[in-house]
Design brief:
Radius of gyration: 29 Å
Number of strands: 6
Structural class: alpha+beta
Strand content: 15-25%
Distance between the termini: 42 Å
Low-confidence stretches: 1-10, 254-260, 386-399
Helix content: 55-70%
Mean pLDDT: 78
Largest sheet: 6 strands, antiparallel
Oligomer: single chain
């Protein structure tokens, strides 16, 4: 009863409990976020290492590429990490019977929510800020740096009087090359990117021209001939020209980055809204932009709900050890993202409205959160209908 009187009357006791729960949550949160970022970044490092080995990128470029990936990684990991931190904290309180002691003193489960709500609000705001500002900046900067690497690779990979292939499927032989202005003399280029035919260009002069905004490198030829031969070798023709261009896009440098304009993940809020106004409603592009736009807010709402739902899950689970909390958190996280992926797929296909589909998993989480909180506070099983096997029921009745 002393604790109860302190809770109702003395403000310091309330702050002590709130601080105690907060200090249980924060270490797991920061550790989990660090581990999640490390694991996801490690998987991306393998593909980026190829750029250092085969594309001529510097180690500093690779470090910046990894830094630009961080916002996307944090956005993906935050729901799972927030849930894991709260579940693990309340699992520890439950395993040590501290929740039972508080309840016996008149402190209900609802009165333990304020520090969790505050933590979930901060995590939600963090997710929203990263989604709205850092993710578009990171994705745009990532592609821009890849383009700069491609541009420097072109100038570094092309050598005089040597057959070189700075880009996949494009072979150069240059008699004279000036790296200052990108001009080339007596140029031979074999373009094998088209699966139906091979193009060979022979020209007196050529220039490397980069278009940073469109992320395209152009080889501009002057006064030459194009020789075109189909793959079967059955037909061939030649065309003389005064000027001719070959465009080299990012897809020729890195297969995953094949866009001439900003993808939905690179767009800011203003750019997304402008793109939605220009696009035809219901078209695949409109759906893709709308889904990405709405996910910035729906995932942030899911982060908040993940924090709240962790209270009944952790308080109701009787197992000891952090591994149980981590396993349960990852299971709930996987269910949420499977639900989100399904809603995204039907939204992109136009089965449901793109703006509504991404909110279905959030509504599901909100419903589960309310049901679990009410039942945990009343010390009832979390699931309204307990699942029991008929055989086990029969065995109990016979006993």
């Amino acid at each position: 009863m002393d604790v109860l009187r302190g809770w109702r009357g003395a403000e310091p006791v309330r702050w002590i409990i709130n601080r105690y729960i907060t200090l249980e949550i924060l270490p797991t949160f920061f550790t989990g976020l660090l581990v999640a970022v490390f694991i996801i970044i490690a998987t991306r490092t393998l593909s980026l290492t190829e750029m250092v080995v085969s594309k001529g990128a510097r180690l500093s470029d690779m470090a910046w590429l990894l830094a630009y990936l961080l916002p996307d990684v944090i956005t993906f990991a935050l729901p799972a990490v927030v849930l894991m931190a709260v579940v693990t904290a309340f699992l520890r309180l439950s395993a040590d019977s501290e929740i039972i002691a508080l309840k016996s003193s008149g402190v209900s489960l609802y009165q333990l929510l304020p520090p969790v709500v505050a933590f979930a609000v901060v995590a939600c705001a963090m997710s929203l800020l990263v989604s709205l500002v850092a993710v578009p900046w990171g994705n745009t900067s990532f592609k821009n740096l890849v383009f700069q690497i491609a541009r420097s690779q072109a100038s570094l990979g092309i050598q005089e009087r040597v057959f070189s292939e700075p880009f996949d499927g494009i072979m150069f032989y240059i008699n004279d090359f000036s790296r200052e202005d990108g001009s080339m003399r007596d140029v031979f280029v074999a373009d094998r990117r088209d699966p139906e035919s091979a193009h060979t260009v022979v020209a007196d002069r050529a220039f490397l021209v980069s278009h940073a905004k469109q992320r395209v490198i152009t080889v501009h030829f002057k006064h030459g001939t194009i020789f075109m031969v189909d793959r079967n070798g059955r037909s061939a023709r030649s065309i003389d020209f005064d000027t001719y261009d070959i465009n080299i896009e990012l897809k020729d440098v890195m297969a995953a980055l094949d866009s001439r304009k900003k993808s939905p993940k690179e767009m800011t809020i203003g750019e997304s809204m402008e793109e939605l106004r220009r696009s035809r409603q219901g078209s695949p592009h409109f759906n893709a932009v709308m889904i990405e736009f709405m996910e910035k807010f729906s995932i942030s709402a899911a982060v908040f709900l993940m924090g709240i739902i962790g209270v009944p899950l952790g308080a109701h689970l009787k197992a000891r050890g952090r591994s149980s909390g981590i396993g349960l958190s990852l299971f709930v996280f996987m269910l949420y993202y499977l639900f989100l992926a399904g809603a995204r797929s039907v939204g992109e296909a136009g089965v449901v409205h793109a703006a509504a589909g991404v909110w279905v998993p959030v509504l599901f989480l909100a419903g589960c959160c309310w049901i679990f909180l009410v039942r945990a506070a009343r010390e009832l099983p979390l699931m309204p209908i307990p699942m029991r096997f008929p055989l086990s029921k029969k065995l109990r009745s016979e006993a």
